[in-house]
Specification:
single chain; 189 residues; mainly beta; Jelly Rolls
């Protein structure tokens, strides 16, 4: 039996994939492969990553909904190292059958699932635990001039972030993001 086989969990947007690694655990702790290019290729994920990011956030933090405009658009492969988050991806590809729809899933440090977010998605997450540490790989480096986003609380999406919004901790940048209505007037994907 292959202890390190990756399983793919289907989402309501087929291009967004959740991977589940097989875990080897014993009295010392556990081991799993956090990244294996060949395994991702076998799951239909073909990319070369160029950057790793690690984020620490506290309970009730919302980060998002972020994306980079072409030619610096980013695909992401994200997992939680510590804590629990609600991860959200919104399809902003104007020619997609799932345009304007979103996927949300809980990720934590217990099940070790990861999420593949292709280019053309706005991405964000909220922190459900007291603290969370998230890591993600990107296939394009960060570029300030191509950094963009859509409002995390846009009514058109109707995202339930997992807690009372009066408790939400957000950045000035995220509070000033454009509405989806404005994005649709000049989409970049």
């Amino acid at each position: 039996m292959d202890l390190y086989l990756t399983d793919i969990i289907t989402t309501n947007i087929p291009d967004v994939k959740i991977t589940q690694e097989k875990i080897y655990a014993d009295h010392r702790g556990f081991l799993f492969e956090g990244y294996n290019k060949e395994k991702l290729l076998s799951c239909g994920i073909d990319t070369d990553f160029v950057q790793d990011n690690i984020i620490e956030s506290y309970q009730h933090t919302i980060r998002g909904m972020h994306f980079q405009k072409p030619p610096f658009a980013q695909a992401k492969f994200l997992r939680v190292l510590y804590g629990e988050i609600l991860d959200v991806c919104v399809d902003i590809r104007r020619d997609s059958k799932t345009y304007g729809k979103h996927v949300s899933t809980v990720l934590d440090d217990k099940d070790h699932k990861a999420i593949w977010i292709p280019k053309g998605f706005a991405h964000g997450f909220s922190v459900l635990s007291e603290k969370a540490i998230v890591t993600y790989k990107t296939d394009s480096p960060y570029n300030f001039e191509h950094d963009s986003g859509i409002s995390y609380n846009d009514k058109e999406f109707g995202i339930d972030w997992g807690f009372d919004m009066d408790l939400a901790i957000t950045s000035d940048k995220d509070n000033l993001q454009q509405s989806f209505k404005n994005y649709k007037q000049a989409p970049c994907f």
